[in-house]
Amino acid sequence: MKAYILSLGAGLIVGIVYSLMGVRSPAPPVIALVGLAGILLGEQLIPVAKRVASLPELTRFVRQDCVNHVLGKLPSHGKRDA
Q1: Burial class (CB in 10 A: 0-12, 13-18, 19+), 18
Q2: Membrane among the record's keywords (predicted)?
Q3: Angle at CA 55, nearest 5°, toward 52 and 58?
Q4: What angle do CA 50, 54, 56 make, to 5 degrees?
């Protein structure tokens, strides 16, 4: 965490110097940075979802309660179901 704070501080100092000199920053536009943040967050969604899905209580809830509610009673085909 310390490295992130130092990096942010260094960026702020450079931004102030650029502003005092009247120079535009060579940094990408904000929209590109938002896209990069989305990529970083998206990379973490699957591992987090896998970890949450592996919790026994959640798995039981989905298999026992949600399946019946979402799918309802599945139709039977008489003798073929035996």
Answers
A1: middle
A2: yes
A3: 85
A4: 160
**pTM for this model (two decimals):** 0.44
**Rounded alpha-carbon distances, angstroms, from residue 54 to 51, 66, 69:** 5, 16, 21
Helical spans, DSSP H, in 22-79: 30-53, 56-61, 67-71
78: DSSP letter: G
Cβ contact 51:45 at 8 Å: no
Name the residue ranges covered by the structural domains of the chain.
Answer: 2-27+41-72
CA distance 77 to 52: 36
Tokens of 73: 């009673």
Interval 12-37: pLDDT, tens = 999 899 999 999 888 788 888 899 88
